[in-house]
Amino acid sequence: MDNTSDAALCRRLDVLEELFSRPRIRELALAPSQDGRTFLFYMAQWGGLPMRRCEVFDAVIQAAQELGMDVNHQDPNGDTVLHVAMRAVARRGLDDKEFIQRWIWAGARPSIPNASGLRAFDVLGDPARRKCHFSLNALHYGEMQEAAPPRETRGQRYVRRHGAAQRQASSQTAA
């Protein structure tokens, strides 16, 4: 394991901040390791991230996305960061909805199966599922958002309704 991975596993966020403040190091840190995992996999192992550290978590995710890193990258076992995050949350006996939601907000897709055909939801056994009720709700919400057709926003609905009425009124006054 390289230094950046060790820092992530030890929760040395001060070291991570320093690493990502340097452009060349940022690029190297975000490259997949020899085991086919990206730096984000080690972040996913944190599970139960303290809320005071969320700004660093968000900054690292943003840096990864700016460099074009795929948050849905799969390791040789087919696991994504969500698979790893759900295992970490269950292993610690936590129900960390916000930690799971942050991955989904970053673009992680809950419906991606690993090499064994398991989605992030499926990696938990029944006892762990009962303990992780809120985390599972976050996954289900992410799956529903992924499966749903794009919704019309309020702004689009307003333009569609009122824009047509305004065009019709202006064409009648012009005639």
The computed structural class is: mainly alpha
* Average predicted confidence as pLDDT: 70
Shape: extended
Our Rg estimate from Cα atoms comes to: 21 Å
* Uncertain stretches: 1-10
Number of strands: 0
Question: From the coordinates shown, what is the CATH architecture?
Answer: Alpha Horseshoe
- Provide the succession of SSEs: HHHHHHHHHH
Q: Please summarize the sheet with the most strands.
A: none
Protein name: Transcription forms complexes with DNA-binding s Swi4p and Mbp1p
Keywords: DNA-binding
GO molecular function, one term: DNA binding
Organism: Chlorella sorokiniana (Freshwater green alga)
Structural write-up:
With 175 residues, the chain is an all-alpha fold. The chain has helices at residues 3-9, 13-20, 23-29, 39-44, 54-66, 81-91, 97-105, 126-131, 133-147, 154-174. It has a single domain (3-174), classed as Serine Threonine Protein Phosphatase 5, Tetratricopeptide repeat (Alpha Horseshoe). Helix 6 (81-91) runs antiparallel to helix 7 and helix 7 runs parallel beside helix 9 (133-147). The longest helix has 21 residues, at 154-174. GO terms for molecular function: DNA binding.
How is the topology of this model organized?
Blueprint: H1 3-9, H2 13-20, H3 23-29, H4 39-44, H5 54-66, H6 81-91, H7 97-105, H8 126-131, H9 133-147, H10 154-174
Helix pairs in contact: 6-7, 7-9
